[in-house]
Amino acid sequence: MEIKYAVIGTGAIGGYYGSRLAQHNKQVHFLLYSDFDHVKNNGLKIESCDGDFELNNPNIYNNVAHMPQCDVVLVALKTTQNEVLKDYLPQVTHSKSIVILIQNGLGVERDLTNWLPDLDVCGALAFIAATKIGKGLIKHLDLGRIMIGAYNFEKNELLQQVITDFNESGIPAKLSDDLQRARWEKLVWNIAFNGPTVVLNSLTDKLMENTSSRKMVYDLMLEVIKGAQAVGVAIDETYADKMMAMTDKMKPYAPSMKVDFDHKRAMEIRYIYTVPVEVAKASGYHMKKVEQIEEQLRFIAER
Amino acid sequence: MEIKYAVIGTGAIGGYYGSRLAQHNKQVHFLLYSDFDHVKNNGLKIESCDGDFELNNPNIYNNVAHMPQCDVVLVALKTTQNEVLKDYLPQVTHSKSIVILIQNGLGVERDLTNWLPDLDVCGALAFIAATKIGKGLIKHLDLGRIMIGAYNFEKNELLQQVITDFNESGIPAKLSDDLQRARWEKLVWNIAFNGPTVVLNSLTDKLMENTSSRKMVYDLMLEVIKGAQAVGVAIDETYADKMMAMTDKMKPYAPSMKVDFDHKRAMEIRYIYTVPVEVAKASGYHMKKVEQIEEQLRFIAER
User: Fold this and answer.
1) Measuring CA to CA, which residue among A277, A275, A269 is closest to residue A195?
2) Neighbouring residues of A102: CB distance < 8 A, sequence distance ≥ 6
3) What does the angle CA B118 – CA B122 – CA B127 come to, to the nearest 5 degrees?
4) What single string gives the DSSP state of each residue in chain A?
5) Is any Cβ of chain A less than 8 angstroms from the Cβ of B209?
6) Superfamily for A181-302?
C-alpha cells in the first residue's frame, strides 16, 4: 500500500520527518508559505548529523486547497496555530485518514477531536534536536525518534504501515499504548524549563546552577508528577531526579518556548501550561507553582 | 523627660522622622555615611507636602562610636543591612533604651532579639511616601503616620513618651497592641507587589491591568492571608479585595523592592519573603506561590 503523506507545518520537525520519508520514496506533500518560492527553485535541504541530503523537486503547495486528499497528515505546526486545522484538515483528508499531531504539551488531540469529531487522531512526541536555519534549510543536530499513539481510534493497518514507513526511512518510530503517560512524562521537563527560562530570561544551565532556581525547577517537576498521578498517570517521583540528572549533563539549552520568545513568536502557553493545570485541577490537584508560571507567561506574552 | 533619639539609617524614612522630631526641638542624633560632609556643610532639607523645612545644624555622626548613648534608637536601615545592628546597637544604647525597627517584613524583631537578647525592641510600620532625592535632601510626598508595637517588653513610660513626642512633632503615631497582625496585614500588599514587579519588570498598574498577573497578585494576597491565619493572625479574605481596590486607585507605583532592584541595591528578600514562608510553613501552611516568587527573586539577585 502506498501511503500519501501530507505535512502541515514544514518547519524543523515537519520538514525533517517529511523529507526523510520522501528521501525513501514515500509520497509526501508539503504545505509551506514563506519558503514556498525558495523551495520551488532550490528544493529542500537537510544538514543532518546522519549525513546531509536534499529533495530537489518535492511536492510543495502554498494553498491547502491544492493539496491532494492524503491518507496520513503529519501536523507539525506550533500549537499556537492549531486553530487553522479546523479549516485545513477537512481539505487534505478523506474518511479513513489519520492525522498525527507531532506537537508538545497536553490537550491538542482533545481540542482537535472536539472541533472535528470524525477525524482519526494520533498524538506523537518527537525526540529530536532540529532547527530551521534558513529558507528550505533544516539542521538536524541529534536524535530523531518518534513515538506515536492513537487517541480516539483502535490502532489499524494504516497506522502500523506508518510505523513501518518511518522505520524504513531511517526514523526510529514506535507505537505507544499510553499516549497520556508519554505526554505527561514529557511535560515534567517541559513545564520545569520552558516557562522559567522565559520568565527569568535564562538558559537551562543557569537555572540548574543557582540553588533557588534549581529548587523551583525541581518543585515544578514534582507538581507535574503529582498532577499526572491525580489524573491516573502513575509517574514516580524519582522521575524528577532523573530529569534533573539529565539536565545537569546537558549543554546550556534554550527550550523551544525561550526560542519563540527570543524571536518574538507566540509561546505555546495553552498546551504546555494552561491545559495541564486545568486537567489536574479537575482531578483534584492544584499545581499552584505551575499555574503561577502560566500567569507570568501570559503577562509577558500580552505585554 | 527629654528623650535622646538616635537615627540609624538616615535615608528617606529615618531622615524624615528624625528631622520632624528635631524640628520640634527633640534631641536627635543622626548616623550618616555618604551624606555626612554634605550635611555638615548644608544641613538636612525636607521638601514636604506639609511645608518644606530644614535643619541647619543637626547632630550628625559618621562613626557610631562617637554617638551618645540614646534612650530611643530609630532604626530605618534597609533590612539587608541589619547585621550591622549587632555591632552598632550596643554602642548607642544603655540598659533602659528602646530600639524601634521602622522596617518592612516579618522577623526583624525576632532576629534582633536573638542577637541581642537584653534589648527592648519595638517594631514599627511607617505609612508614608518619601524618597531621598539627593544628598541631605528628602522629598516627603504623602502620608506619614507610624504604628509602633512593643515586641519583647511591656509598654512603659518611655514608649508612651515616644508616642507623645512623635505626635507633638507632627507625626501621627499610635501604639499597636498587635504588632504581628500589623506586620502580616502589611505583608499582604508587600508580598503581592514587591517581588512580582521585579520578576516581571513592571509597575503596579500593569500588573493590575492584565488578567493573568492580576490573578497572580490576588492569589498571592490570599496565600499570605492563609499564612497569617495559620500562625493565628485572623485576617479576613476580604482584606485582599480591599487591597486590590486600593491598588486600582493608585498611580503607577514602583514598590521599594523594585526601586532597590532598579538601583542595583540589595533586595529585602529575607524579611518580605523567606521568613513569612518559613513561619507559615512551621504552622502547617505552605505558601507555594509566595515561595516561588522568593526563589525567582533569589535567582535574579544572585545572577
Assistant:
1) A269
2) A13, A14, A17, A74, A75, A76, A124, A125, A126, A146
3) 160
4) -PPEEEEE--SHHHHHHHHHHHHTT-EEEEE-STTHHHHHHH-EEEEETT--EEESS-EEESSGGGSPPEEEEEE-S-GGGGGGHHHHHHHHEEEEEEEEEE--SSSHHHHHHHHSTTSEEEEEEEEEEEEEEETTEEEEEEEEEEEEEESSS---HHHHHHHHHHHHTT--EEE-S-HHHHHHHHHHHHHHHHHHHHHTT--HHHHHHSHHHHHHHHHHHHHHHHHHHHTT----THHHHHHHHHHHHSPS---HHHHHHHTTPPP-HIIIIIHHHHHHHHTT---HHHHHHHHHHHHHHH-
5) no
6) N-(1-d-carboxylethyl)-l-norvaline Dehydrogenase; domain 2 (1.10.1040.10)
Residue B45, burial from CB neighbour count under 10 angstroms (0-12, 13-18, 19+): buried
Residue A248, min C-alpha distance to chain B (Å): 17
CB proximity B300 to A under 8 Å:
yes
pLDDT along chain A (303 residues), means of 10: 94 97 98 96 97 98 98 97 98 98 97 98 95 95 95 96 98 96 97 98 98 98 98 98 96 94 97 98 98 98 94
In this prediction, residue A1 carries a pLDDT of 73
Give the other-Cβ count within 10 Å of B152's Cβ. 14
Contact A199/B199, CB-based, under 8 Å? yes
| Element housing B86 (H / E) | helix B85-92
Residue by residue, DSSP assigns B151-209 as SSS---HHHHHHHHHHHHTT--EEE-S-HHHHHHHHHHHHHHHHHHHHHTT--HHHHHH
Q: Does A54 touch chain B (CB under 8 A)?
A: no
| Burial letters A124-139, b for 16+ CB under 10 A, else e | bbbebebbbeebbbbb
Q: Could you tell me if B198 lies within 8 Å of chain A, comparing CB atoms?
A: no
| Backbone φ, ψ for residue B141 (5° rounding) | -95, -40
CATH code 3.40.50.720 for B4-177? yes
Residue B211, all three cell numbers: 488578567
**Residue at B92: amino acid letter:** V
- Rounded to whole angstroms, how far apart are CA atoms B144 and A12? 60
User: Other C-beta atoms within 10 Å of A163: how many?
Assistant: 16
Interface test with A, best of B197, B292, B296 (most A CBs within 10 A): B292
Per-residue pLDDT tens listing for chain B (303 residues):
799 999 999 999 999 999 999 999 999 999 999 999 999 999 999 999 999 999 999 999 999 999 999 999 999 999 999 999 999 999 999 999 999 999 999 999 999 999 999 999 999 999 998 999 999 999 999 999 999 999 999 999 999 999 999 999 999 999 999 999 999 999 999 999 999 999 999 999 999 999 999 999 999 999 999 999 999 999 999 999 999 999 999 999 999 999 999 999 999 999 999 999 999 999 999 999 999 999 999 999 998
What ipTM goes with this model?
0.92
Kind of pairing between the strands at B59-61 and B4-8:
unpaired
In chain B, where are the structural domains located?
4-177, 181-302
